[in-house]
Write a structure and sequence with these properties.
The complex is a heterodimer of chains A (450) and B (456). Chain A is an alpha+beta fold. Chain A is 44% helix and 18% strand. The termini of chain B are far apart. The chains are: A alpha+beta (450), B alpha+beta (456).
Chain lengths: 450, 456
């Protein structure tokens, strides 16, 4: 999944009219303001007064990336506990919000944890203290901990049952042998089972500090009021400096890494991953998003045409690229009839290679830009979705990128697409996982141990 | 024509604490009412186009014709998507744009979302499908019939739907257009021909019986101009259908049918509620809020386990227990109902238990605390329902479709918050006595239901 943004400007108008037709800003034209409070908490507000609704997201840079040895799985477990934790007056955040008809959700990513609440704007003042207390003060309870560990283990078991998710986990593990990105976001069952309240409190006290958080709000709210209210509610919490150093970047493999496993399925699954740009390389990120679109993000994508429609070596093809704080992965997956795995792999790599050799035509790139723009517009239509986008980028870089993204994408040229493909999608620098339908002919296990 | 539109535009302003978004409402010369709402919060635009004519609207045509016509319209619109200029919209559908044509009980609808650049194309397609003169083809009609006939086959998977049909027969009367299968009987469908579909469209489906709400990132005047260009040239239908909200009539009834292979007793108990859009309707929604949810009256009722022996597993309890509540929905004769599956020997106990929850509101007012919580839920629920332009467009357009006017739409929150416990009890006393019950029991085959009047 991608997070993208747009800002409309005079320069952008010229670019769009040349390449893909005039387009409105995907995140609308509402006023956006940002302020960093004295304790380090960053507050971003986009005022939209059309409807009496407001969405507020708390983003904490405390994802699986930030787990130290012995803390694997802590980020996800703390998120679960906050959802159910009891703050002042015995009020549980999630049940309380849901009981009054609001919407609450929490997500753990590699780079951050997100807690999102959407309510009628007249109740924002009531729920803000609940949110703040849940994040900073909620008591982690042993009984709830044991219950949530079981919940998470069940989630993991369900994930194992799904071959497509299992394939992705295998790809990340194969591509990142040292870096925390190689671990499942929620940790492994044995990791989670070892986690104690003390470990979780330690993780939380290190990372759940105002200087390590952002609060993003979109909707029917006065930005100045919200900033003042958050200042009042959070000033007792110290900013702190988190004791965390980013792990060393793990470079792409020099030669292909391959893992083949047998699975009890009628069809095989193929996954190929290349190391991809981080948010620090914004030009490459934009070009990579266009590559993702050109290759596979639609029925007319090159991989679908080649592997599914023309060669008939795959039943479906999908591409994935998530922009992250650190270099992540560009992933292609395919559902392949039993026995066609090697052909599918060869055609897949060949299609990717073509992109490294010659740039796409202007027409093809324009079509990809239109599709990317529309996709971004639809995934940022509502207030909660816009909170998600701005908070996502604020957590790994700056919320501004959510606003500037489309203009940056529209400025990408065909040659930049080719150069980015050459830089990242190198012929031998990939990791390959084949989940082979049991009993089918095909490759021998090349024996990469995970 | 442009001057005429501008002159007849009514600029509405905020009447409540929260200002309504900038909007205009006009009537085009062909009778189409257009509500244009500015929303610059994103690049997405959406519309809801409704025609006051559905499968439940009384008409001389075979039952199910409205649904059949919309099925054909959807097929036609999908075909046109690949043509010429519409291909740009078609391409965008891979990313989230959508155009859906559908038949509801008393209105036909076309709803769409697209980026601002393509919403005009979607509107043009919707207009052509609903108001255009493209004749349906025999293959399109045959395909639509096959789809609806397949949906009509009784099965164990559809037992809730069959119970709902029995309930509507009990509530509205066996001969009501709102009762029974939404697409009519197999006999109705089989005998429809192309001529009947064309006649239905020309006689009744026209801009004079329709209203459009469009929400998008443009000035309201620009949105109206877009609507005028896309829909302004279509001629009015021969017949004019006035908007209406009907209050229910009749006495309490029970309707029962059987289904081969079914082993339980599927029962829906419900009560009529006041017409859409008014304070009474909001009072009924508050009753729903007090009954539903993890801390609602139904979830808290121990009799569900003790009397009916229904198992409340943890997950189901979070959703409010084994009883599924059907909230009041926009419709010509709205109702509030509850569905449960019980052992056949517990049928009467289930009926009495569900009914007792509705009747409790006629006997004593809710506590201040319970009411305050229900109000919060309703205010939040109605606010969140406006997230997404397509939802907002439909919510606003329903007020126009039912002839209520837009004013109550902007007042929902203040109206909800001003409702008192006595007003809720008065509403319940006026409406809830005329309850209805629909049942599906085990049987050798599905049989025609039998009505029986029920004493109070």
């Amino acid at each position: 999944m991608l997070r993208r943004g747009a800002l409309y400007g005079i320069l952008l108008v010229c670019v769009l009219e040349t390449h893909a037709g005039a387009q409105l800003p995907a995140l609308g034209s509402g006023q956006v303001s940002q302020r960093t409070l004295a304790n380090g908490l960053s507050v971003v507000v986009k005022e939209e007064r059309q409807w009496p609704v407001v969405s507020v997201g708390v983003f904490i840079r405390a994802g699986s990336l930030h787990e130290a040895p012995g803390q694997e799985g802590a980020a996800h477990l703390v998120e679960h506990l906050l959802f159910e934790a009891t703050g002042d007056g015995g009020v549980k955040l999630a049940p309380e919000i849901e009981a009054i008809g609001g919407r609450v959700a929490a997500t753990t990513m590699r780079d951050f944890v997100q807690l999102n609440v959407t309510v009628a704007s007249r109740y924002l003042e009531d729920v803000l203290p609940l949110i703040v207390r849940a994040v900073f003060e909620a008591k982690l309870d042993e009984q709830v901990l044991q219950r949530e560990i079981e919940v998470i283990k069940r989630e993991m078991a369900d994930r194992q049952e799904r071959a497509d998710l299992y394939l992705l986990d295998m790809l990340w593990r194969l591509a990142f042998r040292e870096h925390p990105y190689g671990r499942p976001i929620g940790g492994r069952p044995e990791d989670v089972g070892r986690l104690s309240l003390q470990v979780l409190e330690s993780f939380r006290s290190t990372h759940y500090v105002p200087g390590n958080m952002s609060i993003v709000a979109v909707g029917d709210v006065d930005g100045q009021w919200l900033m003042a209210r958050l200042n009042e509610l959070t000033r007792q919490y110290e900013g702190g400096t988190r004791e965390w150093t980013a792990p060393p970047v793990e470079t792409a493999p020099a030669t292909p890494r391959v893992l083949t496993a047998q699975v009890e399925r009628d069809v095989s699954l193929l996954g190929v991953a290349w190391h991809a740009p981080s948010i620090a390389e914004k030009g490459d990120v934009c070009a990579m998003d266009l590559i993702y679109t050109l290759l596979g993000a639609s029925a007319s994508g090159r991989l679908r045409r080649a592997l599914v429609d023309e060669k008939r070596v795959a039943l479906s093809v999908d591409t994935q690229f998530l922009t992250q704080k650190e270099p992540g992965l560009f992933i292609v997956t395919a559902l392949v009839p039993k026995g066609r795995e090697q052909e599918a792999q060869a055609f897949l790599l060949d299609e990717v290679r073509k992109l490294t050799e010659s740039p796409p035509s202007d027409a093809e790139l324009d079509q990809a830009k239109r599709l990317l723009y529309a996709d971004y517009a639809f995934t940022n239509e509502s207030y909660d979705e816009q909170v998600g986008s701005m908070g996502f980028y604020e957590s790994i870089d700056t919320y501004r990128f959510a606003l500037d993204y489309v203009s940056a994408v529209m400025a990408i040229t065909p040659d930049q697409v080719r150069e980015t493909a050459r830089k990242y999608l190198r012929p031998d620098a990939y990791s390959l996982v084949v989940l082979q339908a049991a009993g089918g002919p095909g490759e021998a296990d090349q024996g990469v141990e995970l | 024509m442009r001057r005429l539109c501008a002159a007849s535009a009514i600029l509405l302003t905020a009447m409540t604490a929260h200002a309504a978004p900038p909007h205009q409402r006009i009537t085009l010369p062909n009778g189409l009412v257009v509500i244009a709402v500015e929303d610059h919060s994103s690049a997405v635009a959406a519309f809801h186009l409704g025609v006051r004519l559905g499968w439940g609207t009384p008409s001389p045509y075979p039952r199910g014709l409205a649904a059949l016509a919309q099925q054909i319209n959807q097929t036609k619109a999908e075909r046109w998507l690949a043509e010429g200029d519409s291909a740009l919209l078609h391409g965008e559908m891979q990313a989230g744009a959508a155009l859906v044509l559908n038949a509801e009980p008393d209105y036909l609808e076309a709803r769409a979302q697209a980026t601002d650049a393509n919403i005009g194309r979607a509107l043009a397609l919707a207009g052509r499908a609903l108001f255009g003169s493209d004749e349906p083809t025999e293959p399109d009609l045959a395909q639509a019939k096959a789809t609806l006939l397949a949906a009509n086959r009784p099965s164990l998977q559809r037992v809730v739907e069959l119970t709902y049909y029995e309930f509507t027969k009990a509530l509205y009367g066996r001969d009501s257009s709102l009762a029974g299968p939404v697409w009519g009987s197999d006999d109705d469908l089989v005998h429809v021909n192309v001529g009947a579909v064309s006649d239905f469209a020309s006689q009744r489906v026209g801009p004079n019986n329709a209203c459009l709400c469009i929400v998008g990132p443009r000035k309201a005047s620009s949105l109206i101009e877009m609507a005028r260009e896309a829909l302004g040239s279509y001629q009015p239908a021969v017949q004019t259908i006035e908007p209406s909200v009907q209050d229910p009539v009749g006495r309490s009834k029970v309707s029962v049918s059987t289904l081969a292979g079914w082993r339980g007793a599927s029962i829906i108990v419900g009560v009529p509620v006041p017409g859409y859009g008014g304070r009474g309707y909001l009072a009924a929604q508050l009753v729903y809020m007090m009954l539903s949810g993890p801390d609602g009256r139904l979830a808290e009722d121990p009799r569900i386990e003790e009397t009916l022996g229904l198992n409340r597993v943890a997950g189901r309890r979070q959703e409010g227990g084994p009883v599924t509540l059907l909230p009041p929905m926009a419709g010509p004769q709205p109702f509030l109902a509850a569905h449960v599956v019980a052992q056949p020997r517990q049928l009467e106990a289930a009926r009495a238990l569900l009914l007792s929850h509705f009747m409790a509101f006629t006997e004593s007012p809710p506590s201040a605390d319970e009411l305050a919580r229900a109000k919060k839920r309703l205010v939040n629920g109605s606010a969140l329902a406006q997230l997404g332009h397509i939802n907002a467009a439909k919510a606003l357009n329903l007020y126009e479709l039912y002839g209520v006017g837009l004013e109550p739409a902007w007042r929902v929150q203040s109206d909800v918050l001003s409702l008192g416990a006595q007003e809720i009890m008065a509403m319940a006393r006026e409406y809830f006595a005329r309850h209805a019950v629909g049942v599906v029991l085990p049987g050798p085959d599905e049989t025609a239901g039998a009505d029986e009047e029920e004493g109070q």
